[in-house]
């Protein structure tokens, strides 16, 4: 039974590949001691971008993507989606590239007589405020840019998204589509926001070394997702397998994926201790930060003694990373 098996690792990043590979093989698994690969903000963002391409009616994927845009909250992103949906006759891709003329792109809000002074704030904004940013003429002529609450930063993010959508619908291969996501300006902007968040110190300054490491980890996850896409012939099947299957694969009984710290006090009939290469486990990086070889030995002892019946010790001859 899957719940009697545990895969134990020293570093959380190792588990991403294991989790992704088990998912590909149709083996359910549960991750403890670390966020699931599929629950990380960057993987969710990648899959949201894939989802908008596969289904241009996916409002939630659109809203989640625009949560990263400066100056665009969830209510404005909802209104932008509704506007594109309306001028695209039910398809935001058409809304961007073949907009229809409609009388009212955005619903007028009911007037609040107590705030009469500000009623005119909902009048249509002028597109001329975005003239100097090098936007394509086709984009500048789009009616959604007239939203009065759309700021300069918001318009720039919308333009990055527009460019991503422009070349995406012709892509029918999931690996190529993930590549397109990773090289897009919109995902690079998201990756930057996440990397800054993860490398900001208590005094508010950003540690550039940590930022660079955070970015490389984000893109490493992207390359894992690209490898995972290899087994699928169509974008739809790839997306369904990863998003619909993710909850079922993480709930109920499954192979236990645990960090050594999370495995303390637990026992399993069958245990795999992976990554037994010098540098990874023992983890030289953590040893330099005040750990010791003795501590790594103690952790190895904890990992191996989780096994009741069968113990597999695993290492790799070559380290891809």
Could you characterize the architecture of this molecule?
This protein is of the alpha/beta class and 321 residues long. Helices cover 50% and strands 8% of the residues. A five-stranded parallel sheet has the order 2-3-1-4-5. The longest helix has 22 residues. The radius of gyration is 24 Å and the shape is elongated. The two termini are 32 Å apart. About 2% of the residues have low confidence.
The low-pLDDT segments are: 117-123
| Structure class | alpha/beta
Q: Strand-and-helix sequence, N→C? A: EHEHHHHHHHHHHEHEHHE
Largest sheet: 5 strands, parallel
Shape category: elongated
C-alpha end-to-end distance: 32 Å
In DSSP terms, counting alpha (H) and pi (I) runs of 4 or more, how many helices? 14
Strand content: 5-15%
DSSP strand count: 5
Biggest sheet, spatial arrangement of strands = 2-3-1-4-5
Please state the oligomeric state of the protein chains shown.
single chain
Rg calc: 24 Å
Would you tell me the overall average pLDDT? 86
Helix content class = 40-55%
């Amino acid at each position: 039974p899957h719940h009697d098996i545990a895969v134990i690792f020293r570093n959380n990043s190792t588990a991403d590949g294991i989790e992704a590979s088990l998912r590909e093989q149709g083996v359910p698994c549960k991750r403890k001691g670390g966020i699931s690969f599929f629950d990380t903000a960057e993987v969710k963002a990648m899959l949201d971008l894939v989802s908008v391409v596969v289904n241009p009616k996916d409002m939630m994927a659109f809203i989640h993507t625009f949560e990263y845009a400066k100056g665009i909250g969830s209510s404005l992103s909802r209104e932008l989606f509704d506007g594109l949906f309306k001028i695209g006759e039910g398809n935001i891709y058409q809304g961007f590239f073949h907009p229809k003329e409609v009388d009212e792109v955005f619903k007028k809000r009911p007037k609040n007589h107590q705030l009469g002074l500000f009623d005119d704030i909902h009048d249509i904004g002028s597109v001329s405020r975005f003239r100097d940013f090098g936007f394509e003429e086709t984009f500048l002529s789009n009616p959604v840019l007239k939203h009065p609450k759309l700021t300069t930063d918001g318009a720039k993010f919308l333009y990055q998204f527009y460019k991503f959508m422009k070349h995406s619908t012709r892509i029918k291969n999931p690996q190529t589509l993930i590549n397109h996501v990773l090289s897009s300006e919109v995902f690079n902007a998201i990756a930057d926001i996440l990397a800054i968040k993860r490398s900001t110190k208590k005094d508010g300054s950003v540690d550039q070394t940590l930022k660079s490491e955070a970015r490389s980890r984000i893109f490493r996850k992207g390359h894992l997702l690209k490898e995972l896409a290899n087994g699928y012939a169509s974008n739809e099947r790839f997306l369904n397998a990863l998003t619909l299957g993710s909850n079922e694969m993480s709930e109920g009984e499954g192979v236990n994926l645990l960090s050594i710290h999370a495995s303390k006090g637990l026992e399993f009939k069958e245990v795999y201790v992976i990554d037994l290469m010098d540098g990874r486990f023992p983890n030289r990086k953590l040893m330099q930060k005040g750990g010791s070889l003795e501590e790594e030995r103690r952790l190895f002892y904890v990992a191996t003694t989780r096994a009741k019946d069968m113990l597999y010790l695993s290492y790799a001859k070559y380290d891809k990373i």
